Amino acid sequence: LPANLNAEEIEVLFINEANPYYVFSDRHALKEIFEDIPYIVSFSSYMDETSARADIILPVPTPFERWDDQIGVRGLPFAVYNMNRPIIPPVHQTRNAADSLIAISHAMGGTIAESFPWNNVAEVLRFRARGLCESGRGSIRGLATGALQDETETSDSAERSELNFFTSFWGRLVEEGCWYDPTQGYGDPERFLKTPDKKFEFYSRQLRNTFGFSEDVRCMPHYGEAPPRPKDFDLLIMPKNMITMADNGTGTPPMLIKQLSDTTLKGNDLFVQINPITAMYHNLNNGDLVILETSMGRVKVRIHQFAGVREGVVWIPMGFGHSAFDRFLQGKGINARLLFDVKKDTISGLPIFWGTPARIIKA
Amino acid sequence: MKTKTLEEKKVRYGMAIDVDKCTGCGNCAVACHMENNVPFRQDESDKSRNIAWMRIYRVDNGAEYPHALVSYFPRPCMQCEHHTPCVSVCPASATNYDELTGLVDQINTRCIGCRYCMAACPYMVRCFNWWDPVWPKGMEKQLNPDVAPRMRGVVEKCTFCSHRYLKAKNKANNDGRDFLLEGEYVPACVEACPVGAMYFGDLNNPDHEVAKQIRSGRSFRLLENLHTEPKVYYLSSHEWVKRLADNHM
After folding, report:
1. Least CA distance to A332: which residue of chain B?
2. Is the complex ipTM higher than 0.90?
3. Are A291 and A299 in contact (CB under 8 A)?
4. pTM of the model
5. B138: which chain A residues are within 8 Å (Cβ-Cβ)?
């Protein structure tokens, strides 16, 4: 939970297509959510761990069945607005989460209803699209918004021109699905760098001013010494993100689980990867069943040797160990997140969960 | 108009897979299995029993940390051109080599389940149906009506999505053509690859991208010493990757 929220003060919690019960490593925070909050509503298309523990599940259509949008693409240095429209009618009786919230707010009336002036999610999307259209920036599949405006201009009236422009913009956005502004993050750095000098900084003055750091090194990328390991915990476990497994709490479909090699999952046993030299020192062979222990817990896994892992490190695949979803995913492997000792980054507030001390004991 | 001879009509559909681009994401295999109604079971970890038309092999260069490198080999049917081993041994003519296209296809209703083809195939592309396929309730809606699901007791394998070839050929015939344009017929795996690592087309046509790729100097095939002349080529600039292709020798 965000630090400024107290679970005891929350009467109803809406969880929209998220699975905190699986994703949170912090068991204390989980207890706060699922035991202290009296009523939990889960908007979900799947029976995930969170939905299984919610008081009520409001099934939402899948992305193929609904209006939705996504703002920005992680790692892409320019503005992207993606919109998806339903391409098939809903297979089951479902309702878009946004439509439910709008209906609830209207039923509540007062200022809450006033805050939701739309009748459905499609109207919200049109509202957002209008903002993009009016900005005059960006392109939709190679056609600049400005060029579209010129195309739709009529001599009749400014109002009609504007209406034509938005109608064309909306039609094109619905058809192509994606608006982007590639000029935003490129070109003259003075335009987009937010540093005082409009120059790239290796030494962050913002960090110095915000946190009052006196040592220069703390305002620069630097190596931080790891805390000392507990006695006998001679290894470090590190998460291995599998390209075929969803590790953000969403489910992995059977077609993708089928792709896993038998040195990742055999039956329900998950393999961790260690360097052959680590295996030699611990007298371990490929396929050995071992107990992997950290300060957070202990699990049974199998060993697979791979020279790409640094000596003394254990790679543990993410996305396994679900207790919910279907029989194709449930009970396969273990949830690596439960082994990680999550610390909070003092500057960003983001969780740090790599490099947890661990040890291996032969089962 | 001069009528084309059989020799002139011959095309050789083939594939090139750039392993330097492949990320091992599995999209090709998922697309293949969805397209061809390949079933899945609760436990797919026994690879001697599961069915996969497209299997992705992870290989490494055998070097010590930090010099270890990894590559992925997506492996469809190699569509052998010469003495196609599975065709040669099949007593029921259930596996078929098409003279016009070079496609090695499977006629499931003829298969008697003897599995000679599985023993003969050097690439282990063939899978045996140990059980009747069962899809979870509701998922039968995603089955592709162009491809018949296979029953217990028969062997199946990648066909280069030959049903797509038939569809494309019918469309071309309707348009008054007796040939296909590049890109008119593409297997599901090639279409699905998110990084453009797979090329497909007529190996005999020098204008087709796949033909250019296999002449690029980066191409090689698996187990070339067996002289089965696979029509699936791999592309890489790394010597260690190329060496692995014939590591049985």
Report:
1. B43
2. yes
3. yes
4. 0.90
5. 91
